[in-house]
Each structure stands twice: as structure tokens, then as C-alpha cells.
Design brief:
The complex is a heterodimer of chains A (about 1000) and B (about 220). By secondary structure, chain A is α/β, with parallel strands linked by helices. Chain A contains 30 helices and 40 strands. Chain B has a single domain, classed as Alpha-Beta Plaits. Chain B has eight helices and nine strands. Chain B starts with a helix and ends in a 15-residue tail after the last strand. Classes of the chains: A alpha/beta (about 1000), B alpha+beta (about 220).
Chain lengths: ~1000, ~220
């Protein structure tokens, strides 16, 4: 039967007489294979590969509907992208368990493979009529919305050389070009530590991924030599990352509960059925499936009963910004009931933890100097502290106490007392007060009673106790899934540290069903047959980033100067962030605004819309408007958005269907793979005279070649035998990276039909001459499968995660040594509960008590942050977002479902307006507003653009003689970031956490009134 | 999309390309073979992600504002939102068929209810008659009526309905109830189902597995 069906459909194609690319492989799997694998109705039928005639191509690639990195299988008909399904080889499309990697590609083409709504709709981002195709230069004042096309060669010349570029608009100012920054002179002779003039070049990125990231770094950091290539980790979700950073001593930033193995998950501010990374297609699907089987229970901890509440065991509607208090209360309960994993915590070293069956040990038993008079107060007690002065070699080992309270090296005993504070004598007989890391933590946890914690977090104490007891009863199969909501606010570092600590207390870190990072990538793309890292003349960036991330204020000239003048050296003009994951876009913008610690001369932004997507981003409109603060702004993007509206130049880019090559490694938890993104269709942007598409890579290459920066052009990539090869187009770089992955991972040569499949279906195959024939054949094995993959079942040895951490800490010595640059106070090295506060330390809930509602924000499952207003089908399904309020609160205010309301905050008294929706899905006292809506650009407003019909992909359909004709549907709804609280103590820039620089998504308080 | 549209327009007098596919189609999916095509929707697995809705929209290219499969969302008194994906129930006794004077809408032998656009007069009676709101007028085609047909053209090629493939949690199962196979058969045997509006006795062929009963959460009701 099956044979009959397939042969007929194939005959149909043949009858139509069209050229069929890769025909032999496009045929669905054999009857026998179908019968064998096709018994489960969840995978029974064939997928829509190669149907309905026309010239059909199929490409396995990686999605960019969001940053989750699922695989996709693109169906392209007659050169046009028709649909996406998933990639059967990719674990993210199959709940962690894809087809075995060695499966012949032909057998998989017919297998159903799901992707999420965003992926399906991303076709409308590719063919978005408001996409920009030609390079633009502003033809009016900044922000006027007036642009005109500029020839590619002229664009390159102007950005490289600078000059009086806007004299024709009456702006006589000389604009710096890239060449002006190609200098090793110090940018500030008074403060040489800040680095060279090169650092006045700032490159900020929105949705950047590996592949392009390495390409951009080659230009920014190693070609021009600026230290300021800065991402947007802060607005992405720095809070939970900071907690993990503290827990793991910077070894990992993303850890999550293993959804395939856990039996109990606490979901702290992770929107598992609507967003997250891995997304609903993976993590959410796995949880739903296992929950339906009764294998996992989960508790939602969120002010909002997110969609996952439908299957949740319980929902704790925590007060926004108070996850830390809830976690501390749970820890308090576990300490009081002694329900923590005592044996695990008492194991002082890797061998001892391994002997107990654990994947990672913790420093709960290690001794901390707990003696304010001691010069090493709040540092670990080390052997050298107790040694005499007899010239023995310095012993840096940490100490624990043995059964007789004698300090001994941590690696000399199998277990050590957990909860001690005692006096020890140093080599000269002086007494030192020391406490175990556990005791330090315990002291912080006991600072508040259960009732006090319950009042802070707004959850009844007995409920907290019940959940804590349940959590502790599941052994190492209990873990936390924390994400954006768990720490994205002032004070978030310690909140997320406490949330992460819950996993340590049950001993589930690095265990099947526990809390773990990702397994990493499959192979190195940058080294091997082709050296894509080093090149002649490569620069090493140095100095201090404009965001002051990972830099120490106490080492600055400013500190020395102030210390000389005032004795203390504090406060700094703005905060510094010695202990952070980095990617501080808000403080980069704030730095540019204040010219601190130095000014920016040239700003490049890539696929980035900070004014829309940053809480309080509206504050930086004036920054981007001001040619003194940002003398030259070049945006590389597919659209005109709320931020590049203020750019001097907009360089068109390709979408991920046409380019955005990359190698994509997994998010936490568990899995190990490298997905490979190559184009499915030819670029829709025009090409340069020598046939390279207008896009990020072509732009950076041409700038570098013209400005004479190293790393691009002739003789820059070292290949086999040391030959230096050119880098003149994107594929010169990426195709060789793919070859490195294939060769470094020992992939075999692709069978003839798979090589043919790639050559007949994949646009990238045109560039196979970059490789030797044998390299190409092995690379085909990789490309045909869309990457290098393994299954969930391959990442464990027994119950231990193979790619886990060696240790985690209850007390972080480095954090304890860092200081708040505004006050000079040391940060707590262990847990600490503190309600969200402004830079002056004033709790925001008190400051803004006249504003009765806390505003919480979230993503929707059909959208990505700022760039999906072009998703036509989604906008048809969900035309606008709402202001969601508890029905009791609405009643008290006399408001009704459907009313139009205005939301105002202390920082934005004009506010934003939207429609009210009432219900019980949000905590009383909160209002919830999703992102994605309330756009003023992306096609929502009229723009005066010359030759608009050529500029925009939609041509006459979206333009007239004046320029772009807007579609009002694209501006529907409201953007909650427009009312976010600013900090009056810091020049009215957005609120941040003083340790990590986390922007605050949870502390804004608002009033709501009917219009 | 073209194929499906051609079918809708010319059901019975199929366009050439589709006809040859149809000729080779197997078993009940073909329409001329008896069967009872059935969808099971497992609400214990549905995450409300709406991938099925967007995939359906992209594949069936329905008129603006209309979706052949939709998601009902009901918030309970505890704040929990329950999801019920809905689509044409391909009823055993379809009220739409009874309402169609032109005989344009009818049931195939495999149970799928289709509309022949060559005969559809766009009177809209079937839209009113359907108790499930599963039918809509397509303004681009003179108001002829569109509805879910379980992706009949895909079934003919041995493919699952597009909403079934899009479901990452495996909440949508599909098969022939008269010749159930594999896990579909197991699920049919082992589960208890509900149908929408059973009191109307329309005999729906979309069956729902209800989510298990959860512990009641206490949104805002319990204060410290």
C-alpha cells in the first residue's frame, strides 16, 4: 500500500516534466521502513516533502524564529520558501530524542517533525514587504524618518573616511570615519587603563548568534581592535545567569532542570509553555508529555499563571521581584527540618562526592575567615594562613575541619562538619574566627523569619513549607528551572543565587533529572584544517569597556584621583561591574549618554532595537538623537525599527533563510550538538558589482578592505599546508568553519546520494570549491543532516551528567571581594535577601507606593521580542495585546473587561494605553502586559524615503511617491517597556542591579485608569 | 496550497494534477473507500502553543480572520487557562450537510465532510447550521464556504494533517477508527473520550482526552 502511494506521487512529479533536484533523496522512505517506524500515530504519517510539483528543494538548517535553535527543514519551490517543518536529526524537534545520527538522510525526509508557530510564520519575516533592500542614508535630521538610497561604494567610502557627510543638510560637523579610530593612541592620556582610541568604536548587537558573532568579533575586536563589541545579555535575561555565575564561580551561566529526567521541578519565572530556550517545541513539549504520563510534577512560581499552569501541580503567585525571599524561605525550611542532602553537602572534594555517586561537589564545609579584623576577612582559610614563616612552599589549599575540630586540607578527608564556627590559630599563634560556607549561608538565611519572608514574597508560610518539603522529598530528581523572571531586577543576583542554591541543597546539580548546563557543542569550528581565529596583524583589544563590565573601578585613574582628593575614592560617576556575565547593553547606552568613562565616536548596531526592547529604552532616544554623544551611527538590519530610525546609515541585511550562517550549540540543559545554519534560498537583497549580496558580512569585509584593517581580503585564512587564503565573501569564512566541524568530529564522507542531495538542494553548495574534494564530501555529511547531533541518552554516565561542573559554591570568594563602586561596600559572597531597590538603596515598593500596581511583562508563544510584528498569520490570530488585571482589582477600580485604560508610572506620566482584560491569571496587585506590540516602526508609521518602491521589498504595495505607506495593524497594542522605571540617582537611566548590571523588568509600579 | 484550493473549487471534477495523485491514494483516505477518519486531541499534552493554528493558516491559506482550526481558552476560577483545540468534527450526522439545499456539502465514505465549490451557492446556511463554528465564508471566492477537511490532499499523499505534524507535544493523533493501527489504536482502546456538545448527537469524529484533575491552585486567595 505504502509503496503504491509513494511511487504514484513520484510518477506524478515525473509526469509534470519539471526538473527535480535531488530526486532520489526527495522520495520518502521505503515501504518497509515506513511500516517499521510508522506504527506510532504521533509519527505515523509522511511529512510534506517534495509535493505538488515545481522545482522543489529541501534544506536542513536551523531556525531563527527565536534564539532557541531548533532545527528546520525548509521546503523551497521554484526558488520561493514555501514552508518549514522540523529536522528529524535535531534533538530540539524531537523532545531530545531524534533519529540516530547515522540514519540515511533519505529515510528521514518523510518523517513528520514539528516546529513552533514562530517558525511557521517566519516565512512572513523573510517576505516582509517592509524589508529594506538598499543601503540608506538619512536625508533629514536624525529621527526625522527621512532617508534616501546610497550607492554601496559610496556607503563604504563615507563610513570609512568620515568627513562633512551631512553638509548638504546644513550640518557642518565633521563626522569621524573608521580610519580616524585606527590608532593606538590612548583615548584619555589621564587614564591610560581605558585603552586606545579604537575603543571609541562601539558595536552593539541584538539577535546575534555563533557564526556571525565570530565574524563580527574578527572585525571589531581583532581587525579594528576595539574592546566594545557588546551584546544584549542584560535585557535577554541576566538575572538568573548572575545567580548561576555566583553558584558556579563563573564556570557556567545557564543551568536548568532536566525535563526528561526530573520528577519535580520548581519553575521560577521561566515561561515554559510560551518562551524559554529551548523553547516550547522542546522543553515545553517534553514537560507536557511527561506530565501527561504522570512522570513529573511542576510548580509555577510567577506572578502570572502562565499557560503552563494548565498542567502544573501548583501555582505560587509570588510578588514580583521577591523570588529571592521565597527561595530563602524554602531554604530556611530545609535547614530547620534538616531535609537538605546532608551527605552530599558534607563531601568536601570531588573524590568524596564521586564516591557518593554525585557529579559535582560543593564547598559547604570549606572554612571562610569570618573575622572583620583579619586582612583576609571573607576569604577562604587556606593552608598558608596557618603555616609558620619557615619558608615552606605556599600551600593554597582550602581547609575544612576534621572530627576533632582541627583544620585540615579539603582534599584530605572524605567528609567534614557542615555547620561550624570556631577559632583557629595561625602560624604565629593568633586566633582567627572561621566559619564553614554552610554556616555563612545559614546565617544569611536566618536573618528573617518564615513569616517575614512570607510577607515579602506574598505567599503563605505554610504553602512555602509544603512546597519545600515536596521539593526535598524527590532526592536528586528535583531541580529548579529558573529563567528571566527569577532575577531580572535590582537585587536579582542574590535572588537568583538563592534560587540556584535550592538545587545544591538537594544535591541534584549535574545529576540525571537535576540541574545542569548544556553539554556544549560537538566540535570546534574555528580551528583545524582552517585557522579562522588567527591571522596576520591580528589585534588584541585592551582597556575598559564603555559599559564598565568585567572591569574593576579600584584599578582606575578616576579612583586613584578621587582617593587622593577625598580619601575614599568613592563614589564612581556610574557603577562598575567587576563581577558580571556582561553583555550590558543598558550600561553601554548609559555610558554613551554620559560619555563615561569615555565617549563613543562610532556606533554600529546589528539586528537590534534597544529603544523598543529595553525596559526604559525610551530614555535613550535623546542619546541616539544627539550627534555629540553618537557622532556616527550605522545600523545593519532588515527593517527600519524604533531605534535605527535615528541612524545615519542603514545597511540592508539578509534574513536567516538567505544567510546568517552559523553553528548553533544547545542551551541548558543536557544536550550536546552543533546545528548548522546555511541558506535555503538565494538572497533577496541586491548584490555588489562582483556578485556579493548586501548584508552584514559584505559590509564589514568591504569596510575592512578599504580601511586596510587586518583579517579580511587577500591572504588572511591559513589553510592546509599553511597557504594563506582570501576572505572576500561570507562563504570564504563559513564554509571552512563547517569543514572544521566535520573534520574535527571525524565525520565520514557522505555517500554519493547525500552529496548529491546537498549539491542539488543547498545554495551553499555553490561554494564547495573553497574546500578540497574530500573535505567537501565530509562536510556534506554534516550539511545534509543540518548539523552534528546526539541524543539525550548519550550525555549521561549512569546518573551523572558527562559534561557537568566540578564544583559549586555556597560562598563565592570573588564576589565577596568586589565592591559597589558607588558606595565602596563589599557585596555578599553568600546568599542575601534584600527587596529591589534603586541605586541609593531605597526599596522601590516604598518609593512608588502611590502607584498601586506592579507591572509584570512576558513573552507570548507566537512571538519573538521585538521583530515579529511582521508575522502576518500571528497578527491575524492575535491582533493586539492587553493589560491583564485581577478581576477583584478591576472591580475595586470600577473597571471592566474591554475598557480602554491608561498606564502611567513615576517615570512616564504620559503613559501608554491599551485594552483591559480581567481575570484570575495574574496576582492581585499586579498588571501583566506582554511584549511584541505597540510598535511605532517596522511598518507602523509613514516614512519619507526616496525611491521607496525600490527600497522596500513590497515595492508599490507598501509605498507611494512620498515614501513608505504604513500598515496600522503593525502598531496595534502597547509596549510595557515604555513606562519602565528610571533611576533618578543615575541620570534617569533605567534601573539596574548594582552587581551584575541587570536591567529591572519587575519593579515598575503603575497606576491604571479608564480613558 | 494550490492543490487544495483546486480540490475545493472542483471537488468531483478534480484538476488534473490532483487527480493523478488521488488515483494512487490508498485506503480510506481516498474518499471512495469506507472508513472513519478520526482525530484524537489529548488535552493533557496540549500546551496551547498555537503552532497547529499557524501551520494550518500557512498551509490552507484561509480568508483573513478565519482559521480552520482554533484554540478555545477558558480560564477557571483559580486562574488556570484550559485549552481546547477545535476544528470541524467531521460529524457522523452533520447538520451542515442537512442544511445545504444545493447538495454542495457532503460526507465522503471515509467520513470527511467536504464542500464542492462548483455547487456551493454561498448561501451561508451551513455556517449557521454548524454548532461548532467550524465553517466560514471565503470573501475572496464569492462567499463560498471553507472548512477543515483533515488536510485531505495530504492524506492522499500519505501525509498527516498539517496540524498533527506541527504538534510538538504529540497532543494530536490521527487515524482511521475503523482500521486503527499502532498507538492510535492503543489510545482508542485505553482512553475515555469526550466529544463537544454530545447532546446534539452529531457524532463528532474529533475525540478529546481530558487532562487529569489537578490539585487546585489558590491564586490570590491565600495571603500570608
Amino acid at each position: 500500500m505504502a509503496t503504491d502511494r509513494f511511487s504514484r506521487s513520484r510518477r506524478t512529479w515525473l509526469k509534470t516534466g519539471v526538473a527535480l533536484a535531488g530526486l532520489s533523496l526527495l522520495r520518502p522512505q521505503s515501504a518497509a521502513a515506513s511500516e517499521a517506524s510508522g506504527t506510532d500515530p504521533r509519527t505515523i504519517q509522511q511529512a510534506p516533502v517534495a509535493r505538488n510539483g515545481g522545482e522543489v528543494r529541501v534544506v536542513h538548517s536551523v531556525c531563527l524564529g527565536c534564539n532557541a535553535r531548533c532545527g528546520n527543514r525548509a521546503l523551497v519551490r521554484n526558488g520561493r520558501l514555501e514552508s518549514f517543518s522540523g529536522n528529524p536529526f535535531h534533538p530540539y524537534n524531537h523532545q531530545g530524542r531524534p533519529v540516530p545520527y547515522a540514519t540515511p538522510v533519505a529515510q528521514t525526509l518523510g518523517r513528520p517533525s514539528p516546529v513552533c508557530a514562530k517558525a511557521h510564520d517566519s516565512i512572513n519575516a523573510v517576505y516582509n514587504p517592509y524589508r529594506v533592500l538598499l543601503p540608506l542614508k538619512r536625508s533629514g535630521p536624525r529621527g526625522s524618518g527621512r532617508f534616501e538610497p546610497i550607492a554601496w561604494e559610496r556607503l563604504i567610502a563615507e563610513v570609512t573616511g568620515g568627513g562633512r557627510l551631512f553638509a548638504h543638510l546644513g550640518e557642518d560637523r565633521k563626522i569621524p570615519g573608521l580610519r580616524d579610530l585606527d590608532s593606538d593612541a590612548p583615548l584619555d592620556p589621564e587614564a591610560p587603563e581605558l585603552g586606545p582610541v579604537r575603543n571609541r568604536f562601539v558595536f552593539m548587537s541584538g539577535r546575534m548568534q555563533s557564526g556571525r558573532k565570530e565574524f563580527i568579533d574578527r572585525f571589531v575586536k581583532h581587525g579594528l581592535g576595539s574592546i566594545n563589541r557588546i551584546g544584549h545579555t542584560d535585557i535577554c535575561g541576566l538575572g538568573f545567569r548572575m545567580g548561576n555565575l555566583a553558584l558556579t564561580e563563573k564556570k557556567a551561566v545557564e543551568l536548568k532542570a532536566d525535563p526528561w529526567g526530573a520528577s519535580y521541578i520548581l519553575v521560577f519565572g521561566a515561561n515554559i509553555y510560551e518562551a524559554l530556550q529551548p523553547g516550547v517545541n522542546t522543553y515545553g513539549a517534553a514537560i507536557a508529555d511527561r506530565s501527561a504520563r504522570g512522570e513529573v510534577q511542576f510548580v509555577i512560581i510567577d506572578p502570572r499563571a502562565q499557560r503552563a499552569a494548565v498542567h502544573a501541580h501548583d501555582w505560587l503567585p509570588v510578588r514580583p521581584g521577591c523570588d529571592g525571599a521565597l527561595a530563602m524561605a524554602m531554604i530556611r525550611r530545609m535547614i530547620e527540618k534538616r531535609s537538605y542532602n546532608r551527605a552530599y553537602l558534607a563531601a568536601p572534594n570531588p573524590a568524596a562526592a564521586t564516591a557518593l555517586g554525585h557529579g559535582c561537589y560543593c564547598n559547604a564545609t570549606h572554612l571562610v575567615i569570618d573575622d572583620p579584623g583579619h586582612p583576609d576577612h571573607l576569604r577562604f582559610l587556606r593552608s598558608r594562613h596557618l603555616a609558620g614563616t619557615d619558608g615552606q612552599p605556599v600551600d593554597e589549599r582550602w581547609l575544612v575541619v576534621d572530627g576533632e575540630n582541627n583544620p585540615v586540607p579539603f582534599d584530605s578527608v572524605e567528609r567534614a562538619p557542615l555547620d561550624r564556627s570556631l577559632l583557629v590559630r595561625d602560624g604565629r599563634g593568633r586566633k582567627i574566627r572561621v566559619s564553614t560556607a554552610f554556616r555563612m549561608m545559614r546565617r544569611a538565611v536566618m536573618a528573617y523569619t518564615m513569616d517575614e519572608y512570607a510577607r515579602f514574597c506574598g505567599i503563605a508560610g505554610r504553602r512555602i513549607e509544603r512546597i519545600a518539603d515536596e521539593f526535598a522529598s524527590h532526592g536528586t530528581r528535583a531541580a529548579v528551572c529558573q529563567y528571566h523572571g527569577a532575577g531580572n531586577y535590582a537585587g536579582g543576583t542574590h535572588a537568583a543565587f538563592a534560587v540556584a542554591m535550592l538545587n545544591c541543597l538537594v544535591g541534584s546539580i549535574g545529576m540525571r533529572g537535576g540541574y545542569m548546563p548544556s553539554g556544549g557543542g560537538g566540535a570546534d569550528p574555528l580551528k583545524g584544517a582552517y585557522d579562522l581565529k588567527k591571522f596576520p596583524g591580528r589585534r588584541r583589544p585592551r582597556g575598559v569597556r564603555i559599559s564598565r563590565e568585567k572591569a574593576c573601578y579600584e584599578k582606575s585613574s578616576e579612583f586613584a584621583r578621587k582617593k587622593k582628593a577625598t580619601g575614599s575614592g568613592y563614589p564612581a560617576a556610574r557603577p562598575w561591574f567587576p563581577f558580571t556575565r556582561g553583555g550590558l547593553s543598558v550600561e553601554t547606552l548609559a555610558g554613551m549618554d554620559a560619555g563615561y568613562p569615555y565617549g563613543c565616536s562610532i556606533l554600529f548596531t546589528y539586528f537590534y532595537d534597544p529603544l523598543y526592547s529595553t525596559p526604559g529604552g525610551y530614555r535613550f532616544r535623546s542619546t541616539l538623537m544627539d550627534s555629540d554623544r553618537v557622532p556616527l551611527h550605522v545600523s545593519i538590519d532588515t527593517c527600519i525599527n524604533e531605534s535605527n530610525l535615528y541612524a545615519d546609515y542603514i545597511v540592508p541585511d539578509v534574513t536567516y533563510a538567505e544567510g546568517q550562517y552559523g553553528w548553533l550549540t544547545p542551551h541548558a540543559p543536557a544536550l550536546r550538538f552543533t546545528g548548522v545554519r546555511t541558506p535555503c534560498i538565494e538572497p533577496l537583497t541586491p548584490a555588489t558589482a562582483d556578485g556579493r549580496p548586501y548584508c552584514l558580512e559584505t559590509f564589514l569585509i568591504d569596510l575592512a578592505e578599504r580601511a586596510g584593517l587586518p583579517g579580511f581580503g587577500r591572504e588572511t585564512i591559513a589553510g592546509p599546508g599553511g597557504a594563506l587564503l582570501p576572505l572576500h565573501r561570507a562563504e570564504d569564512f563559513y564554509v571552512r568553519a563547517f569543514a572544521n566541524i566535520a573534520l574535527n568530529s571525524g565525520l565520514p564522507e557522505a555517500p554519493a546520494e547525500e552529496k548529491e542531495f546537498v549539491e542539488n538542494n543547498y545554495p551553499v553548495a555553490r561554494f564547495r570549491d573553497r574546500l578540497t574534494r574530500q573535505q567537501w564530501r565530509r562536510t556534506c555529511y554534516l550539511l545534509a543532516r543540518g548539523g552534528l547531533f546526539s541524543s539525550y541518552d548519550q550525555v549521561f554516565a549512569g546518573d551523572r551528567f558527562r559534561y557537568g561542573l566540578e564544583r559549586v559554591v555556597l560562598f563565592n570568594e570573588e564576589l565577596a571581594a568586589c565592591r559597589n563602586a558607588l558606595t565602596g561596600e563589599r557585596f555578599s559572597g553568600t546568599l542575601r535577601w534584600q527587596p529591589p531597590a534603586d541605586a541609593a538603596g531605597r526599596p522601590l515598593a516604598l518609593e512608588d507606593r502611590d502607584y498601586p500596581f506592579a507591572l509584570v511583562t512576558h513573552k507570548m508563544n507566537v512571538h519573538t521580542q521585538s521583530r515579529t510584528t511582521c508575522h502576518r498569520w500571528t497578527m491575524e490570530l492575535v491582533p493586539e495585546n492587553f493589560v491583564v488585571m485581577h478581576v477583584d482589582d478591576a472591580r475595586a477600580l470600577g473597571l471592566r473587561d474591554g475598557d480602554r485604560v491608561r498606564i502611567v508610572s513615576r517615570s512616564n506620566s504620559r503613559g501608554i494605553t491599551g485594552r483591559l482584560r480581567t481575570g484570575r491569571s495574574v496576582r492581585s496587585g499586579c498588571v501583566a502586559v506582554s511584549f511584541h506590540y505597540g510598535h511605532t516602526q517596522h511598518g507602523a508609521s509613514r516614512l519619507t524615503v526616496a525611491r521607496a518602491e525600490e527600497v522596500f521589498l513590497g515595492g508599490a504595495a507598501v509605498t507611494d511617491e512620498q515614501g513608505l505607506v504604513p500598515d496600522p495593524k503593525r502598531g496595534a497594542g502597547l509596549n510595557p517597556n515604555m513606562v519602565s522605571r528610571l533611576d533618578r540617582n543615575l541620570g534617569d537611566t533605567p534601573l539596574i542591579d548594582m552587581i551584575g548590571g541587570i536591567p529591572d523588568f519587575s519593579s515598575t509600579r503603575v497606576r491604571v485608569a479608564r480613558i | 496550497m494550490t492543490t487544495r484550493r483546486e480540490f475545493l473549487i472542483g471537488s468531483g471534477t478534480l484538476a488534473l494534477g490532483a487527480a493523478s495523485v488521488l488515483a494512487g491514494a490508498g485506503r480510506a483516505a481516498r474518499g471512495s473507500t469506507p472508513g472513519r477518519m478520526t482525530m484524537i486531541i489529548d488535552q493533557a499534552r496540549c500546551t496551547g502553543c498555537r503552532s497547529c493554528l499557524i501551520a494550518c493558516k500557512g498551509y490552507t491559506a484561509t480568508d483573513t480572520g478565519h482559521f480552520n482550526t482554533r484554540l478555545l481558552e477558558e480560564e477557571d476560577r483559580h486562574g488556570r487557562t484550559h485549552f481546547t483545540p477545535v476544528l470541524c468534527n467531521q460529524c457522523d450526522d452533520p447538520p451542515c450537510v442537512r442544511s445545504c439545499a444545493a447538495g454542495a456539502t457532503f460526507k465522503l465514505e471515509n467520513g470527511i465532510v467536504v464542500t464542492d465549490w462548483a455547487r456551493c451557492t454561498a448561501c451561508g446556511n451551513c455556517i449557521t447550521a454548524c454548532p461548532y463554528g467550524a465553517r466560514s465564508a471565503d470573501s475572496r471566492y464569492g462567499g463560498r464556504v471553507d472548512k477543515c477537511d483533515f488536510c485531505r490532499d495530504r492524506l492522499q499523499d500519505g501525509l498527516a494533517p498539517v496540524c498533527v505534524e506541527a504538534c510538538s507535544a504529540g497532543a494530536r493523533l490521527f487515524g482511521d477508527r475503523e482500521n486503527p493501527e499502532g498507538g492510535f489504536a492503543t489510545c482508542l482502546r485505553q482512553s475515555t473520550f469526550r466529544v463537544l456538545r454530545p447532546e446534539l448527537e452529531t457524532g463528532p469524529n474529533v475525540l478529546y482526552v481530558q487532562g487529569r484533575r489537578y490539585q487546585q491552585p489558590m491564586s490570590g486567595e491565600e495571603r500570608p
